[in-house]
Design brief:
4 domains; 429 residues; 21 helices; alpha/beta; Rossmann fold
Length: 429
């Protein structure tokens, strides 16, 4: 996350409750897990928190110098422990270099990173991370490592990995803090590694819900400036009501409006067209599939206006904690619509025609037949309109799965093959 992030210009009151809570934790040198439903806008919030010049003074206010070190795990090529520590050390070096720390500290951290390139030894790598953090602390600065999208490496996490994280805190005399972002709490990600007992003193959960309307308007203005849309007050309010603070819906809706040729005149027309948009549908599906079966059952009962028992509410606590459910309703009409249509879709699963996005993917793979198409290339070719927003691995894999299944139903001469850790290719069979 660069200092040039436009979110750094948001008003200081943006998500003030979340900022105040996170600031208090960092003031007390706690570690925090920011938990929220997938693509709810945690990264958007952190770009604000990391880049607004008055954050530390306003929300931490302990009189200390703080160094925020963002480490976006989207930057990992391989989801393994060794690349994780290499990336961490690189981002420490980058952040120190941009800071007001002395030339000596900058040179030491840079040297520690450059030396690490020569070795793939895991012990030496973690030791250099430790030495870099100690250098920062001894210079009178409090470091915080922000592990953004930490859930991306959940399969690589081991007890030894967790011990290394704890060891770094000890080495800095507990002056180091961590901020993790994840769509689930750490114990839910890897309950054999992050037990509730071990986490009780290691980190606190802070749930990030969809943005309040005033904050959504701030985000809307930022993105609307990019697309130069001239929406009527009626359509603008309808948009805010439909997305209900969910940042990914907001961004996708603005892209939809930008690409639409004819203007929208009524709220009903807007909802009908947007709810059937393929990108919106795919995002709703990702959100739906991130839930456990019990959580899905609870939401289905809510949609059908059926009574939810106390036991069911306790088991589905995540839904209320994350703001997926507000009181007794699903947070967004768009998500509500998707769920209500799910059963109808499942009963009509023999449709073999390719959708617009499926066609784009098939033709992209066909243009490179027998060649491996990397995930990043697929995003560029199939999602050029949302490339800047990022496309989740789930969305790519889901679209590929749909194309693969439809090709089989069509008895096509083509087949999509998965190339592990790299991407996909189309072959003739």
């Amino acid at each position: 996350m660069e200092n040039s992030a436009i979110e750094g210009n948001y008003p200081l009151t943006f998500r003030k409750d979340d900022s105040a809570s996170l600031g208090t934790h960092l003031k007390n040198r706690h570690s925090v897990v920011l938990v929220g439903m997938k693509r709810v806008g945690i990264s958007n919030f952190l770009r604000f928190f990391l880049n607004h010049k008055d954050i530390a003074k306003t929300y931490i206010g302990d009189g200390n110098s703080h160094l925020f070190i963002p480490i976006d795990l989207n930057d990992l090529v391989e989801r393994e422990v060794a690349p994780f520590w290499t990336l961490t050390l690189k981002r420490i070096s980058d952040s120190v270099n941009k800071s007001s720390l002395t030339k000596e500290v900058k040179k030491k951290t840079e040297t520690l990173f450059s030396d690490s390139i020569q070795s793939q030894d895991l012990f030496l790598m973690t030791d250099r991370v430790r030495r870099s953090l100690v250098e920062i602390v001894e210079a009178g600065v409090l470091p915080t490592l922000f592990f953004i999208r930490f859930d991306r490496i959940k399969d690589a996490v081991t007890p030894e990995f967790f011990a290394n994280l704890q060891g770094l805190k000890d080495a800095t005399h507990r002056k180091l803090s961590y901020v993790f972002t994840s769509y689930r709490s750490l114990d839910a990600l890897s309950e054999t590694v992050f037990t509730k007992a071990s986490l009780s003193v290691f980190s606190k959960d802070l749930y990030i819900k969809p943005a309040k309307e005033e904050d959504t308007k701030t985000i809307f203005k930022t993105y609307n400036d990019r697309y130069k849309l001239n929406l009527s007050p009626l359509i603008e309010q309808a948009l805010l009501d439909m997305v209900d603070g969910y940042v990914q819906y907001l961004q996708l809706a603005l892209i939809y409006l930008h690409e639409r040729k004819s203007p929208l005149k009524t709220k009903d027309e807007f909802f009908e067209s947007l709810s059937k948009d393929e990108e919106i549908g795919l995002q709703s599906e990702e959100l739906w599939e991130s839930l456990g079966q019990q959580e899905k059952n609870v939401i289905t009962k809510i949609i059908k206006n059926e009574k939810v028992t106390k036991e069911e509410k306790d088991e589905g606590k995540y839904l209320w904690d994350t703001g997926l459910v507000v009181d007794s309703r699903v947070f967004s009409p768009l998500f509500d619509y998707y769920i209500s249509q799910t059963e109808k879709k499942s009963s009509n699963n023999n449709i073999v025609e390719l959708t617009k996005k499926e066609n784009l993917l098939f033709n992209y793979l066909k243009d490179s037949i027998n060649l491996v198409c990397e995930r990043e290339q697929i995003v560029e070719g199939v999602w050029p309109e949302v490339e800047a927003l990022g496309v989740s691995d789930w969305a790519i894999d889901r679209l590929v799965a749909r194309v693969r299944n439809k090709l089989k139903l069509q008895k096509s001469q083509f087949e999509v093959q998965t190339i592990r850790t790299r991407g996909y290719k189309l072959v003739e069979i």
